[in-house]
Amino acid sequence: MSDDEDLVVHLDPDAEVEAAVRRESEDDALEWSSNVAISLIVAGSLLGLWFGFLLFAADPHDVLENPLFIDKNTATVNGQILTALDDENLTGGDPIEGIQVLLLNIDDEPTSHSAYTNRDGRFSMEDVPHNSFILKVSHSGNKTLRITFNPGDQADISLTLTPGEGTIEEDIRRDSHLDSAVLLASVVASLTVIAALFGFVGAAEARRGKNYRRTQYLCGLALFSRGGIFIGPMLILAGMGMLSATKRHFDDFDDED
Length: 257
Hints:
Helix content is 43%, strand content 20%. The chain is of the alpha/beta class. The protein has a 5-stranded mixed sheet with strand order 3-2-5-6-8, with no helix packed on it. Strands 4-1-7 form a 3-stranded mixed sheet, with no helix packed on it. The protein folds into 2 domains: 34-60 and 179-256; 74-129 and 133-171, Immunoglobulin-like. The chain has helices spanning 13-57, 60-64, 178-208, 212-222, 231-245, 253-256, and strands spanning 74-83, 100-105, 110-116, 122-129, 133-137, 144-149, 157-161, 167-171. The longest helix has 45 residues, at 13-57.
């Protein structure tokens, strides 16, 4: 072969076809994985959106009873009963043993909670729900006590028995925090809905396939939508994992390498 002779390269047609089929198969697999990832992100975001709307419609007390906001749904009621002071005889202030303390609900109906005072005049009732109750103390020769309160508002309830007839009624409940509860519920619901919307934007970015980092950031923010507590975030996290495995779907894949 002379130096002036052109070099001719012969390509194997079968190899070209095989390579083309392989590339097409890989592209199809990438597209399928990307579509599944987008579907998972959309499903998780829909759950978050639904959860946010439920929070908007929920009673604020129901929101505050969520484990995210309180540690326990019950409280222990502690107290002490003493005799009234007699300034003339300089007597009184002594603990009274064996007095029954009853809890009535706010409708004046008996509950399963009751206790007797010990030798120090003290009583205790555990696992009392966070509702308004009436604490009732009746003792012969003394006025009946009816104290309206919320369990957990006071660490200790001090009661004094006054000689005589009739009833002493007192409301020691603290000011209602309903306005704060409504505000808190609205803020939580709004942030939940906004986080879910980030998920939809992230899914749209994944469909466009332009910017990998931006897509993952948006989907990461959508995790805070908490749809179904953990189901929604798990779906979004699974979608983010599949997107990570299919980076070649994005135009900026080379920048991520």
